[in-house]
Amino acid sequence: MPRKANGRSSIYEDANGVWHGWVTVGVKANGKPDRRHRRGKSQTEVTKKVEALERQRAEGTVADAGKIPTVAEWIQTWLTDIAPRTASESTIESVYRPRMEIWVIPRIGRHRLDRLRADHLDALYTEIADAGLASKSVLMVHQQVSRCLKMAVRRRIIGVNVATLIDAPKHRDAEIEAFAQEEAKAILQESAKRRNGARWSVAFALGYRQSEALGMRWSYMDLEKRRIRVWQLKRRRFKHGCADPRECIKDRHRASCFAHCVNHARYCPERQGGDWVFRPPKGGKTRWSVIPEPLVPQLKAQKAAQAAERLAAGDGWEDWDLVFAGPTGKPIQAAKDWAEFKEMLAAAGLPDARPHDARHTAATLLLEQGVDVSVVQEILGHASLAVTKRYAHVTNKLTEDAAAKIGKALWA
User: What positions does the domain Tyr recombinase occupy (predicted)?
Assistant: First the structure.
């Protein structure tokens, strides 16, 4: 069959018995027709390939012309050039990159991006689950792979995101750990004896994340109106300043480190970065909190205590405008804050927990007090109502109250 003109698809057999198909899918940047070639051992095989390409043309899913990267190459492009526009450096380097370089690239990285199939992902998830990765982590790997492939589709490198063709790995959310009301009070009694004790009152009353509590600023607070704008204090990741990051920290690598790991940069003698930065809260939305009245005197006392420390430090004081700071005004290290919480739990005779569990407790107590779930979502800054609703089953108090009400309605 001869080639067909005017942009129509054509199928023909060459002198060697190989079948060829040509499909015009659009126009190149230089104005010339963008014609794609398919080949096969039979006319039937090539016809199917041509028809598939014509369907892609009709659906607008034909990838742009050019060299198609491997999965590994595209992942590195995504991590380096694309993900930083929506995710923090810390998230990319401590979460995204390890997942991709430890679990994904070694298993499917060699495939050309347009030849990645859904069954490749099925096999990937089965393999990493069998290797001991928790179900939630497997799900997060899937979500990350899907985001990465989605960007490849948007840029017309591939026509289909194969991650959307399979069911997401199953995961059952772990039970949320929250303190009982009396346990929370015991912790606050212990924190009242300590420097920066109001920091933990903020955690339980406002449900702030650790970075939000340690990032509170006086200039964003109005104690008379009882309003405060939520902000975060984050420390940038350290980066290597040496010529060979792998060799620099060779004694720091663990069994879980991937082959080309260049982490542990904080131990590099020539390290860079590590500076503190203020950022909007998680999600990027501006969020204001109403300060409960009993918390106002504590914050006023905190301000007075800090003024005395500023006076004592003299020229050694560093003004970061922080509500909770070190004795010379410097930001409090997250690890030190974490350790203090553990000390308070031990002093109060309570089991081990995390500072973030104070946030869980705030959500639970608000729901127990009958606050509407949408209001709780707004207070805590949850991205969706579904996240807030996870707290509804943490305690039996709500279901007990409901049972009492239905019992009263039927038999009282």
Answer: 174-404
